[in-house]
Amino acid sequence: MEELYADLVVIGSGPAGQKGAIQAAKLGKSVVIIEKYPTPGGSCLHSGTIPSKSLREAILNLTDFHKKSYYAKQEVPAYDISINDLNYCLNQVTEEQVGQFQKQFERNEIKWVQGLAHFEGPNQIAVLDENHHLTHMVTGEKILIATGSKPRNPKNVPFDKERVLDSTRLLSIDQLPKKMIVLGGGIIGSEYASFFAALGTEVIVVDKKEQILPYLDKEIGMHLQNALGTIGLKFLGNREFEEITRHPDRVELRFSDGMVLKGDVLLYALGRVANVDHLHIENVGISVDSKGYIPVNALFQTIVPNIYAVGDVIGGPSLASTSMEQGRLAARHAFGAETHHFPTFYPIGIYTIPEISSCGYTEEQLKKLGFRYEVGRAYYYEISKNTIAGNDPGMFKILFHADTLEILGIHIIGREATEVIHIGQVAMTFNAKIDYFIDQVFNYPTYAEGYRIAALNGFNKVKHRK
């Protein structure tokens, strides 16, 4: 058993833990990271964000997805994509990322410890190996919990590794299913559903809400649903399941009205919970809230002042991007560096096919708040870049105040949405008005000029109203 001391002990090496550790090191503090995986990256790298986005990119490339869109009127050769092809792409990305993280930790003299951590006291962490033998006792002035989340696995769902899967188990399947049922129309369910639909799998998404990704701007959500329909994905809304039955060769989803759906596999994607089972947080007086997450204040401190928690373990927004900033800010506050509260304005990216990104208000929110607003739209078929790249579906939607012209919300669906959203984000941060996009010159042809087309569309409506 080895004893270690550090100014900051970080539990978890996902985006939140990484950035917290590196920030503390940049402040001249000694740092120890404890991670259950044998290599850095946490669930984000090994079973979450990076694998899912790598899978998406591999599918788009290996299936010539955009080429098929471009040559829609011609026969494009079909490619027999195997699970091995996809896994090869995923492994390449994982290995590259692991190497980058290891170099970062080495450059910043961050000590790496593999094992399962749990609290012995407010300043002391025990680390166990896979056989539950004590390997390290780590003492830290400050502790940062960044253990992330895991798929919610209710006891009445018969999970296995072949038929009934969560998002982690899905990455380990050994063959592509012909028919898939996805239970849950949130981000994870929608992303994976679109991936497999693009591979040619018959996919049906079931959710109790009437629309897929219901918190999206409704028009954008309907645009997504239509786009997914063109690649064969079906959505069944306003439905709650009663029972999941696993058979040797299939899985069945039964509803209260007697309706039954059958598939080769079922992806259960109804929520995630904080990954705190083995932390023994009760040893230091910390408990989870009613939703299963660790409560923190605005500075990411738990009820124990020297123990901080960041990322998915504290609940929403549960994005890798926001988790990174939470980790950085927590480390700065922990060691007295100048800091600020976590921003309330940031973009959201959803990597369905097509992808979606947004920042600011939705149209439904503006209606509820009673704003006088107007809408500017640019459809992808109006954008020359899209014609060149493949005639994919998509649109820009800009919401702005009808009197002051202040930009209130930007929503984009289509290729490069998660990239070009940052132009709108910056404009909104500096309180730009809708005519800002009209008066600027954009590179041509680019997807970004959709801002100008949408701004002109919206501004002309206001001008004609006066």
Mean of the pLDDT scores? Answer: 93
| Secondary-structure-derived class | alpha/beta
Number of helices: 14
How many domain modules?
3
Strand content: 15-25%
CATH class of the largest domain: Alpha Beta
User: Runs with pLDDT <50, length 5+?
Assistant: 73-78
CATH topology of the largest domain: FAD/NAD(P)-binding domain
Pfam families: Pyr_redox_2, Pyr_redox_dim
GO molecular function, one term: NAD(P)+ transhydrogenase (Si-specific) activity
Domain FAD/NAD(P)-binding: 7-327
Subcellular location: Cytoplasm
List keywords for this structure.
14 helices; 33% helix; FAD/NAD(P)-binding domain; Enolase-like, domain 1; 5-stranded parallel beta sheet; 7-stranded mixed beta sheet; 466 residues; alpha/beta
Strands, helices and their partners?
Elements: E1 2-11, H1 15-26, E2 31-35, H2 42-46, H3 49-62, H4 65-70, H5 83-107, E3 111-114, E4 116-121, E5 124-128, E6 134-145, E7 149-151, E8 164-165, H6 167-170, E9 179-183, H7 187-198, E10 202-206, H8 218-230, E11 234-236, E12 241-246, E13 251-255, E14 260-263, E15 265-268, E16 272-274, E17 307-309, H9 320-334, E18 348-350, E19 356-360, H10 363-369, E20 373-379, H11 384-389, E21 395-401, E22 407-413, H12 417-429, H13 435-439, H14 450-465
Parallel strand pairs: 1-2, 1-6, 2-3, 6-17, 8-15, 9-10, 9-15, 10-11
Antiparallel strand pairs: 4-5, 5-6, 7-16, 12-13, 13-14, 18-19, 19-22, 20-21, 21-22
Helix pairs in contact: 1-9, 3-5, 3-7
Can you give a write-up of this model?
InterPro entries: Class-I_Pyr_Nuc-Dis_Oxidored (IPR050151), FAD/NAD-bd_sf (IPR036188), FAD/NAD-binding_dom (IPR023753), FAD/NAD-linked_Rdtase_dimer_sf (IPR016156), Pyr_nuc-diS_OxRdtase (IPR001100), Pyr_nucl-diS_OxRdtase_dimer (IPR004099). The chain is an alpha/beta fold and 466 residues long. Helix 1 runs parallel beside helix 9, helix 3 (49-62) packs across helix 5 and helix 3 (49-62) packs parallel to helix 7 (187-198). It has 3 domains: 2-150 and 273-334, FAD/NAD(P)-binding domain, CATH 3.50.50.60; 164-270, FAD/NAD(P)-binding domain (3-Layer(bba) Sandwich); 354-465, FAD/NAD-linked reductase, C-terminal dimerisation domain (Enolase-like, domain 1). It has helices at 15-26, 42-46, 49-62, 65-70, 83-107, 167-170, 187-198, 218-230, 320-334, 363-369, 384-389, 417-429, 435-439, 450-465; strands spanning 2-11, 31-35, 111-114, 116-121, 124-128, 134-145, 149-151, 164-165, 179-183, 202-206, 234-236, 241-246, 251-255, 260-263, 265-268, 272-274, 307-309, 348-350, 356-360, 373-379, 395-401, 407-413. It starts with a strand and ends with a helix. The strands form 5 sheets. Strands 1, 2, 3, 4, 5, 6 and 17 form a 7-stranded mixed sheet that branches. It has a 5-stranded parallel sheet with strand order 8-15-9-10-11. A 5-stranded antiparallel sheet has the order 18-19-22-21-20, sandwiched between helices. The radius of gyration is 24 Å and the shape is globular. The model is unreliable at 73-78 (pLDDT under 50). A hairpin with a 5-residue loop joins strand 21 and strand 22 (407-413). The longest helix is centred in the first third of the chain and has 25 residues, at 83-107.
